């Protein structure tokens, strides 16, 4: 933290959700040390030691930073598997591999963008103002607090740290207390790369006191948070007195719409919801909208597909799905399955803890046959391996139900007629829509409408999120 490793007086245990064993004991950073991380970030930014460095030099140091992470592949993947309960193939391919590609491409994207350019003010307006130049300049925001979730600690860390640092900001990263160990690698990488003291700190805690300090401290200029909508609302309130910039990627209850000519794709689409992440992804399309007259066919097909999913310890390379993160999260799944049934829904497959897995927070991949979009299982983000199938009368009805949500993070439309499917996608009130395919890239933005968040991550918009815009009007003395 702030250029050196700091141990607190207390420790807390990180638990393996697959067998409830301890992954390790982690030192809890005292509130005073979180304060010092903020103070050092403020000092490092105000001194210009990083912000005033040429962008290509920042890029070189960050590539060295990433080289170190790449060199720790085996240990880092093992840590992710243990603390997050994610299958090895997901930890290797997505958390590790995709994160590094995203990080390096973000650096390239930043270097390809113009961060100072002429403003298109008409010449006659310049003349009347006595100015000869109007310039728009993109500058770093300042001190950024980055708060990441448990389900994708490495990806979300990279998604915040790299664009923020490339833009010249100083960053304090606070990972989820459920999966903090893998994020300590960012601190080790900063040390190896020689980032100036205070430019990047990682603060680890078992509770929320440090996070609340980061979201309310007057020396912090921006909060970038990924997590639940409920916590996002609290962050907005905590940031309001100091009018911080806030970027939020929050909950989702995304819909996947199958047009009549693509119903046979439904089973494959349903698999993507639960495989690897056990449904613990904010973009998971957990509402499946299908033609009413083919709903039963889809429910049966998805149930057959889910019956083929091997649930087991994430170290088992044949297991497609591991546990949810905690006992509380498993209980949430159970509660919403019960609520679905109480409100007219039916469990077509799953709905309980799997037999033979006595330890660990496992929950069966679950298919709910839902009567309508008003069912609690269709309204609330469950964040587990539970999908609901709902029938629609026609395309207008499908669009209406897809948009009838407090959330708007992602969505999917499947159709053999690509033009028709794209027309449906344009009508959805959501930050991203995948039509027959998906793209995860440093060059493509993500973010939410409505209560799914504020701002964007990735893409040019994700870099601009960490920058202020300054207008320079320049003229000669008269």
Automatic annotation (TrEMBL):
Annotated EC: 1.2.1.3
- Domain Aldehyde dehydrogenase: from-to ranges: 5-471
UniProt keyword Oxidoreductase, yes or no: yes
The family database entries (Gene3D superfamilies) matched by this protein are listed as: Aldehyde Dehydrogenase, Chain A, domain 1, Aldehyde Dehydrogenase, Chain A, domain 2
| InterPro entries the UniProt entry points to | Ald_DH/histidinol_DH, Ald_DH_C, Ald_DH_CS_CYS, Ald_DH_CS_GLU, Ald_DH_N, Aldehyde_DH_dom
Q: What class of enzyme is it?
A: oxidoreductase
Where do the catalytic residues lie? 249
Q: Which Pfam families match?
A: Aldedh (PF00171)
Region (Disordered), start-end ranges: 1-26
What is this enzyme's catalytic activity, as reactions? Answer: an aldehyde + NAD(+) + H2O = a carboxylate + NADH + 2 H(+)
Which keywords describe this protein according to UniProt?
Answer: Oxidoreductase
Q: Would the keyword Transmembrane helix turn up in this protein's UniProt record?
A: no
Q: Which family does it belong to?
A: Belongs to the aldehyde dehydrogenase family.
What is the recorded name of this protein? aldehyde dehydrogenase (NAD(+))
Q: Which organism is it from?
A: Actinomadura napierensis
